[in-house]
Amino acid sequence: MKIEVKEKNGDEIVFIIHDADVPFVNAIRRIAMMEIPKIAIEDVNIIKNDSAMFNEVLAHRLGLVPLVSDNEAIEGLVIDGECDCDDYCPKCSVSFSIVENGPGTVYSKDLTSTDSKIKPVHDTIPLFKLKEDQEVELEAVAKVGLGLEHAKWIPTTVCAYKQYPDISFDPEKEVFPEVVEACPRNILKRNKKTKKVTVQNIENCSMCGSCVRASENNAINVGFKENTFIFRIETDGSIPPEEVLLNACDVLNEKADKIITFCKDVL
């Protein structure tokens, strides 16, 4: 297997996987979305709420605020449900609080955390507005969880792959301008003098088949390369994308070890 990084920019990474099969690549995708530990606000105790927002809506908005959840930040915290405490404790949770008076807009930066490492990823997420003499006071508890339980624990906003496109031409047939114009992503380019059609930025091809349908003489064929995939991971900023990928591989390795151990014990 060979992995080639094509793009790495902030919270996004794009790479190509060679010599792999669909079940393996899809397993990485599912684990990256659903089984990577992340911290998010789970319980909200609203002491006072004079804003126009209902308590339930306010709690929901707080739960969807991305919190820093990299390995260093959540090190030592136990996943919700695996702790021996009755409700929550410092071993499995981090507390936040808001005490604000109007007028003004309250942002994610106004969430005060008991742990300096665990805080909102972005400071400018608007939570609610307060008018003159309005006040909001609340306490929130963030816990570590998995995307299997709730969307707020999914670290990725985009986690997808596609098979590597492959475009070929019949050398004995002419590729007419209509074929080039039919491509919605401008993958095909035709030289007016030589009338030769070339492929540019093939990785952007969605394999929609518009060019094939526009070719009346079947001069073009769109397919894909076997066992080669373009994989894209984009996160909400809570966990770096490369860390999501490494953690997903570790989880998959643990699952494989369990199967091997089971087989050895049974067989």
From TrEMBL:
Statement: the UniProt record of this protein carries the keyword DNA-binding: no
Cofactor: [3Fe-4S] cluster
Co-factor binding comment: Binds 1 [3Fe-4S] cluster.
Gene3D superfamilies: 3.30.70.3110, DNA-directed RNA polymerase, insert domain (2.170.120.12), RNA polymerase, RBP11-like subunit (3.30.1360.10)
EC nos: 2.7.7.6
Reactions catalysed according to its record: RNA(n) + a ribonucleoside 5'-triphosphate = RNA(n+1) + diphosphate
Residues annotated as domain 4Fe-4S ferredoxin-type: 195-225
Record keywords: 3Fe-4S, Cytoplasm, DNA-directed RNA polymerase, Iron, Iron-sulfur, Metal-binding, Nucleotidyltransferase, Transcription, Transferase
Amino-acid positions noted as binding [3Fe-4S] cluster in the UniProt annotation, renumbered to this chain: C205, C208, C211
Highest taxon of the lineage: Archaea
Complexes and interactors: Part of the RNA polymerase complex.
Protein role: DNA-dependent RNA polymerase (RNAP) catalyzes the transcription of DNA into RNA using the four ribonucleoside triphosphates as substrates.
Protein name from the UniProt record: DNA-directed RNA polymerase subunit Rpo3
Lineage of source species: Archaea, Methanobacteriati, Methanobacteriota, Methanomada group, Methanobacteria
